[in-house]
Give the backbone structure.
Amino acid sequence: MKTDVLIIGGGPGGAAAAMFLIREGIKPIILEQEAFPRFHIGESNTGESGQVLRRLGFEKAMIEKQHPIKHGVSVFGTSGVNSWYVPVSARDKEWNLSNSTTWQVRRSDFDTMMLKEAEARGATVMPGTATKPLLTDDGAVRGVTVRWPDGKDEDIETQIVLDCSGQATFLANQRVTGPKYLGNYDKQVAFFSQVTGAVRGSGVSGEEAKDNTLIFYAKKFHWAWFIPLDKDVVSFGMVTPRADFLSKKQTPEEFFRNELYNINPEIRRRIPEMKLVEKVHVIPNYSYQVRGFCGKGFICIGDAHRFIDPIFSFGLTVTMREGEFAAPLVREYLEGKRRNGENPFAEHQVFCEKGIDNLEDMIDLFWEQPFAFATFVYHRYPDLLTDAFAGRIYPTEHQPSRAVLAFRKMLKRTREYDQDDYSVPIGSRFHPERAALWEPNSPVGTTEEWMGAR
Amino acid sequence: MEIPRKLKDYIDSNRLPLPPIKDEDEPLQIDSLAIVRLVAFLETDLGIRIEDEELIAENFATLRRLGELIAAKTPTGPTAEAKPSVQEGIPTFSAKRETDRSGVPEQ
């Protein structure tokens, strides 16, 4: 089988990339191994991912499907008494700031809508699993071997692969990319479920809007989220150090029920009764970064190349934005441009890295110095922080902002980009002893293997 | 360092119902997000600039620590960057005392 563009993964990253490609006149194949709808975590949009959905023409559908409208995010301090609130914001062409809204989504529904719409617009969705990349003699990706549901293998020849495989990091694990490094956050576990009967805000807009995201802070690396999914159900999860869970010797559900109220006093008010309507899911929560995530014949998108920390909900934003950025570059590649250099997408790669670096500096400062961070949000750089929270993170004349530069100064961190034009893991998240997750002669095959049983 | 009257009053009023602070080594007993407001008050109302590197909760633990922090600083007058009280697209801050939970419905 032959195609111009093969997208691995039919989540929002793959579906959005497909729809942006279709706008460029390219009809891709999307390979998705799971039957949709399926459960997925990562349920909140930012201001900018809301704008992506509007650009793709989904505003009417989002309203009709009654996805909860998010006006902002409140972060409760340890006492549960005080909170700071960051509104979802937008900028106009003159860069004037205004309030905006975006959507919370039940991922099973949202992802199905996105994938179906990509198909309706001209993408071909095929149920299969990418098992092996096919490479040319000079290392360019020229396709993948796919295993179909009947167990048969087939090679799909393609000019370019977009790896939207999420945390499976297909091309990185297949060693097509550069090495995959562990990041700063590697000892946490997330437990999550869905609850009914939760107490939401009582207002219609602003800080008290009923469907806002709430974050409950406990201490470094201990926190919980509250994200309304529809009029009855709220996604609720907590993140704790793995050692805390292991030491208690409880099942995930026991641990979840027992520990949740210890995170923050506000939680008991918000969730007076623990009525779970979804099983308790557990995932290890660790950050990683893939170097060289673009190259001849491939681009990795979203979690397929980098993940930092789920706090503040940037997953959908990053993956859909990267699909949007990639689409015109893919068209040029198919037109025969960008074929001479070593890495046809080097600029895109450094552009995406710089954006996520800005996010990472913000998240790191939140964990390292929450008091200073809150002062920045509330008092020092309020408008610049709403930009970051809204996902306006990519390099422009506005980023890195004075706020991001202040984060770096406080983290005693500088950002440098080496001659290969992608970011060098630096600062608190770089651990030399962890650097070689895999190398050509390493006995360690994958990140998961290196990290041991969880 | 003498603590300005205005600052002492501000702190006392923000730790109600606790009594006014008598001992300068007594913990202020205001939570970290209330200290954020204290920083804003120092800069905006008293014109005392706190450096980013000084934004450590320990610097605001007692009146003595606070006095040491601001001793070397010269008030510059209220900062020009003081923001209007209501502005679109700007984060807000809620200090909900236990007695004032009007913004959140009770069960």
Q: What stands out?
A: Residues 97-107 of chain B have pLDDT under 50 and may be disordered.
